[in-house]
Write a structure and sequence with these properties.
heterodimer; A: mainly alpha; Hypothetical protein af1432; 16 helices; 0% strand; B: alpha+beta; 60s Ribosomal Protein L30, Chain: A; five-stranded mixed beta sheet; membrane (chain B); protein-glutamine glutaminase activity (chain B); Probable chemoreceptor glutamine deamidase CheD (chain B); transmembrane (chain B); Chemorcpt_Glu_NH3ase_CheD (chain B)
Chain lengths: 283, 161
């Protein structure tokens, strides 16, 4: 095996385990009649998560002139199922992104901001396309670049080579990764999700988020992650040394029955929603 | 050392006190740097979409989202800072695109065309530009030196426009 890949796969073994609430949410929400009560019960067992959820519900945007929320149940009423669940997922996953990104010429925190932004815009896109598995989509978006966190320090040694490939203007970032490293950041992220026991469609969406046509299971999920990611990159949110060096999927508008104006409206939605969410996370 | 003002996405900042204005990670968005050397003032705009007709309500809340309302609002602001439109030097950067011969995601290109159209309406031309391609750019307007530069992600060197 490629010795670098071997080393990185060894590092995957050292990644802290995924908080169990994430899998719990995903399995509850795949149920045709999901019980939010089950999720609330698990959140309440975790002091830190409970504190954060209540703090979010009391942030300026959600609080307005209302009373202070004191329990997870009250927070649920104020935030709504979808927002509460998504914020629990985000809070549980943020630890993996804490110090990553500098190898890709991103400021600290920018890779996490990109993950959140991708996940946020995916929810609006899913409304438009009537995609059902919104929590799976949100989580896949949060995780789509987790491979970059494992490649961060290696990438800083390969930067010049990658950039000289990209300067040609004809090579995609994925092709450059394959030629220089022998694997992509999507592949590394997918390996981590495999280890954590994620469902196959989400593993596939993370593995192929830049080439969704190659996703064998859950192609629709992969296309949603792809488009949400591309929108963030075009807007410059988490735009790194790879820039926009990715291929367009020209059938995507027909597939989702979207116009370019719809995509532009997602830009506007995201710039506002991201500001709101950052304020909420800060509390 | 003068202050650095950071211009966010869908944002504009103007100054007449020799500051450096900088905007990060231009993808398909466009950065427009404008200065009047006589007035010693200038501004940097970072807009994300070509045409305010998409959502006129949003454009009235934040004109800097769009090329047309963004440039008009910036020019008005600069006139209040003592700039004269005919003396302005204008330079632009950004407008990158996903790699696509079919123009599926051509917002970067449309952003650039919108800029040219609006400047033409004001009888202004671009004195410098670094537009297109697929890479990420930072853009700086140094009002102490009246200079504009671009730096590509992952690269140390500045490119002077």
């Amino acid at each position: 095996m490629n010795p670098v890949l071997e080393k990185i796969l060894q590092n995957i073994e050292k990644v802290p385990p995924l908080p169990s609430i994430v899998m719990k949410i995903l399995s509850v929400m795949r149920n045709p009649e999901p019980s939010i009560k089950n999720i609330i019960a698990v959140v309440q067992l975790d002091e830190v998560l409970t504190f954060r959820v209540i703090r979010m519900a009391n942030s300026a945007y959600y609080k307005r002139s209302g009373e202070d929320v004191r329990t997870v149940g009250e927070a649920l009423i104020r935030l709504g199922n979808n927002t509460l669940i998504n914020m629990v997922i985000a809070e549980s996953c943020s630890q993996y992104y804490e110090s990553a990104g500098t190898g890709y010429d991103l400021k600290r925190g920018e890779l996490w901001r990109h993950s959140i932004a991708t996940a946020l815009v995916s929810q609006k896109l899913a409304e438009k396309t009537q995609f059902e598995h919104k929590e799976a989509l949100f989580t896949s978006c949060i995780m789509h670049d987790v491979g970059k966190t494992l490649l961060d320090s290696y990438m800083s040694t390969k930067r010049a080579e990658i950039l000289s490939k990209l300067a040609l203007g004809t090579v995609t970032f994925t092709q450059a990764e394959m030629e220089i490293m022998g694997f992509s950041h999507g592949e590394i992220g997918a390996r981590l999700l495999e280890r954590w026991g994620f469902p196959q469609d989400m593993i596939s969406a993370v593995r192929h988020h830049h080439e969704p046509e190659r996703a064998l299971s859950g192609k629709k999920l992969a296309y949603h992650v792809y488009l949400s990611d591309v929108i963030c990159l075009m807007m410059g949110i988490g735009l790194d040394l790879g820039g926009l060096s990715y291929t367009a999927q020209k059938d995507i508008f027909d597939m989702f029955n979207l116009s370019e104006a719809d995509v532009q409206m997602l830009f506007i939605y995201l710039v506002e929603e991201l500001a709101k969410t950052e304020e909420m996370i800060r509390g | 050392m003068n202050d650095i003002l950071v211009v966010n996405i869908a944002d504009m900042k103007a100054s007449n006190s020799g500051n450096r204005l900088i905007t990060y990670a231009l993808g398909s968005c466009i950065g427009v740097a404008v200065f009047d050397p006589v007035a010693g003032a200038g501004g940097l705009l970072h807009y994300m979409l070509p045409d305010s007709k998409l959502d006129e309500r949003k454009a009235s809340e934040n004109p800097f989202m769009f090329a047309d309302t963004g440039i008009t609002s910036m020019l008005r602001k600069l006139e209040k800072c003592g700039c004269e439109i005919r003396r302005l030097t204008i330079k632009a950067a950004g407008g990158s695109n996903i790699m696509d011969p079919n123009g599926t995601f051509s917002i970067g290109k449309k952003n650039y065309l919108a800029l040219k159209r609006i400047l033409w309406r004001y009888n202004l031309i671009l004195r410098g530009e670094d537009v297109g391609g697929s890479l990420s750019r930072n853009m700086t307007l140094n009002l102490a030196e009246m200079s504009v530069s671009v730096r590509y992600s992952g690269v140390k060197e500045e490119v002077w426009l």
